[in-house]
Structures are given as structure tokens and as C-alpha cells.
Design goal:
56% helix, Arc Repressor Mutant, subunit A, mainly alpha
Length: 121
């Protein structure tokens, strides 16, 4: 049986999500060296490479030229691919949020249907 998109979802902690957002913001500006980035984010080299690998696994393009890193594309495009940490919603709360008519509401509704089947009215 194939995995659903929900099962393939990347789960990140709120602290890491905040750090990834800051990293993307820095990478969206002028190219920076690894040393400059790790200093700005107050992280070690290992954390930098782990975060870089995660972003690339999410199809967020980051280039490296002359030992400097830069975000390819826009910050908005990158943030669109970055998962949000689990907000800790109950199924009932998620059902309430899924009642809208936008594409985001439909996405949430589809994920809920995958989890619990068609919700009761």
C-alpha cells in the first residue's frame, strides 16, 4: 500500500521551524559564508548542514558558489514548502478550520478525510 502525503509529511519542532525560517531569510539576501550564517543563527557547523539537507530534501533550492550560500527563488516560494510544526489541534478543531472554501481549507479537509474518513455534518 502506498503512503499518503500525510504519512510522508516532514515533522519539525517549533524551535527548528523558527531557525529554518531565520536561515531562509538570511539566505534570501546577499550570499553568505557558512561561518557568517552559523554566527548569525548561533548554531554549530553540524546543525547548519543538517538544516541545509532538510531544506534541500523539501525541494528548497539553495546554491553554493565560492563558499557562499544563497536561496534560489523567492523567500515566499521557500516558505510555501516548509512544513509548519504540529499546532496541537484536536480533530474537532481541525474540522472547524477545514470548512472554508480556499485551496488551503480543501487541503486540510482532504488530509482529515485521509485520517478519519468523510466527516459527519
Amino acid at each position: 500500500m502506498a503512503k499518503s502525503k500525510l504519512e510522508d509529511a516532514c515533522i519539525i519542532t517549533p524551535i527548528r521551524a523558527a531557525r529554518l525560517c531565520r536561515l531562509l531569510t538570511h539566505l534570501a539576501g546577499s550570499p553568505l559564508t557558512r561561518e557568517a550564517i552559523t554566527k548569525k543563527l548561533k548554531i554549530d557547523q553540524r546543525s547548519f548542514y543538517r538544516d541545509l539537507d532538510l531544506l534541500r530534501s523539501l525541494a528548497i533550492d539553495i546554491s553554493s558558489t565560492d563558499n557562499k550560500y544563497h536561496l534560489d527563488g523567492t523567500l515566499d516560494e521557500a516558505l510555501d514548502k516548509l512544513p509548519v510544526p504540529d499546532p496541537g489541534l484536536s480533530i474537532r478543531e481541525a474540522l472547524v478550520l477545514s470548512k472554508g472554501t480556499t485551496a488551503i481549507h480543501k487541503k486540510l479537509r482532504t488530509q482529515l478525510e485521509t485520517l478519519i474518513g468523510t466527516p459527519r455534518k
